[in-house]
Amino acid sequence: MDYQNLPLCENEINNLGNIDTPIDLVFIELSKIYDIVLSISQIENIFFMIIDNITPERRKRIMKLTNTQIYTYANNLFAAFEDKDQKLPIKISFYLQKNKNILLQLAQDIETSRIEIAKRYGILDEETNQYVIPSEKMEDANKELNDLFNLEQDVQIYTINIDNLSDDITITTAQMEAIMFMIEQ
Fold first, then answer.
1. Exposed, middle or buried by CB within 10 Å (0-12, 13-18, 19+), for 73?
2. What are phi and psi of 167, to 5 degrees?
3. Is the distance from CB of 177 to CB of 79 less than 8 angstroms?
4. Residue 104, Cβ neighbours under 10 Å: how many?
5. Is the Cβ–Cβ distance between 109 and 93 less than 8 Å?
6. Cβ neighbours of residue 78 under 8 Å, at least 6 residues apart?
7. Distance (Å, whole) CA 78 – CA 99
8. Mean pLDDT value of segment 18-22
9. What is the spatial distance between Cα 159 and Cα 169, in angstroms, rounded to a whole number?
10. What is the 3-state secondary structure (H, E, C) of the chain?
């Protein structure tokens, strides 16, 4: 590729100075990409500070959760907030969606591991499309399943300040229970 014939705007050409090698041009282009990425990151941080009106460090919290808790929180969030027409304040809606996405991905990974254990110890029943684990392998399968669901992971949870839950928000008891792990005092 002829790097000398790459299209550059006049302002960029004047600012380039002396380009001796293709590597000089690469560094210039990488510098532009870095500036764009940095700008996007800065915009994201400003957005979060505005939406939360708090420092970025308080918006997210790393929680140590067992796979059982991850599975439970994911299922509870999806069941409690399945009504797509429900209107929630943007802060709550945004963080709820972020947490649902995080927990869903982790729950899918856990489910994949659970199915691998079922495949290892079980026999596929063609009629029900489920794995049946013979009684002689049940103890080993249960031990592995218990180990899987007792594993702990550090999970980034987006939290909601309790002050953001105003009296005019209408949520059910099940919804409140589903988001309790997200609420900070």
1. buried
2. -65, -20
3. no
4. 15
5. no
6. 100, 104
7. 11
8. 51
9. 17
10. CCHHHCCCCHHHHHHHCCCCCHHHHHHHHHHHHHHHHHHHHHHHHHHHHHHHCCCHHHHEEEEEEEHHHHHHHHHHHHHHCCCCCCCCCHHHHHHHHHHHHHHHHHHHHHHHHHHHHHHHHCEEECCCCEEECCHHHHHHHHHHHHHHHHCEEEEEEECEEHHHCCCCCCCCHHHHHHHHHHEEC
Longest dimension (CA), the chain: 78
- % the chain with pLDDT above 90: 49
Token readout for 149 is: 């669901």
Q: State the pTM of this model.
A: 0.65
d(CA 42, CA 46): 6
Residue pLDDT, tens place only, 36-90: 655 665 665 555 555 555 444 456 889 999 999 999 999 999 999 988 788 888 8
Residue 113 burial (10 A CB sphere; 0-12, 13-18, 19+): middle
Enter the tokens of residue 133.
């684990």
The vertex-110 CA angle with 105 and 114, nearest 5°, equals: 145
CA–CA separation, 81 and 164 (whole Å): 18
